[in-house]
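user: can you give me the structure for this one chain? tokens are fine.
assistant: on it. calling the predictor now.
[tool input]
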Amino acid sequence: MINIISKIRTVARNKLPIPVCLCVLMIIIFIICPFVSVFHPTSVNDIHKVTSKDEYVKVKAKKLYYTGYNLEKFGGELYGYYYSIQDGKSVFAIIPTDDTPQEVIKNYEFTAKVAKPDHSFKKMQESYMNDLNWNVASFSKINAPFILSNADYHPVFFIIFFWIILVIFLISLKKIVSCFLAITNPYIYPVCTFIGKQEQKLLIDDAQFELDSENYIQINDMFITENYFIDLGKTKVSIIPLDEIVWCYRMGEISLNPRDTAPEFSICFMILSGSIISAKHKSSDEALELINAIRATGYEIIIGHSESKRREAKRITAEYKEYEIEKKRQ
């Protein structure tokens, strides 16, 4: 027995896994990414009080000494390698500079990522130690095991990334709520997008009544009853009153799956409001059989795609809109 309510619940349940997985994934990404630390870096009033446990810091340095070495980042931004030394301990920092870097910077405040020394830094440090005739191994013992890199502090990137995560999470959450609502109350599922939710119950019940009469044409998951086109697909349930359809035609679909060999089609319905409703992922035989069945209904529906038929359909929908406007004025 064909049951629209049962099919709506099945479709809604089948749609749940993807948004649930996306919601969980976005939560995990939010926990892993240091958004709080980036947006609210730890304030440290002395550069020598920074520890390797910190992630992002807003730090003050009494004196920073220029090493003579620069770092050019993507986009041409120039940074200088500076260091601060106090009580026999040193900390290196990468801060913005220009073509004529200052040899000594006093009372400087900057925001930075507490990063592990990378290959570029180690290469610079080795060259700098050689310039001073210092022993690299000995200097490493008094140097902090991290660098303070303003070059690696990218709040704009994290802001954009945060909003992407938030949008995906909210959209997924909305889909989850919609699926649960459809499971608990299938009558609110949008089987027909151009009518109100109150009318949907009458529409579903009437379509079910016509299916129960067993006076219909069936093409796999599609049904044409006396007054309705009903598509009980795997991912969508649609019900369209036949007297609302102005134009019906098929369109080929582009598949991104290289394994797909058989072409797929969408059956498109232009309704009186001018909107297009599509029944997607149909085979060529299904599409042709449905078009022929629609043609045989006896309703005045334009069948097939051409420019002249498109103009005729537009004319009919425009006249209908004018009629509706005039009726409201009266």
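assistant: here you go. The chain has a mean pLDDT of 89. The two ends are 46 Å apart (CA to CA).
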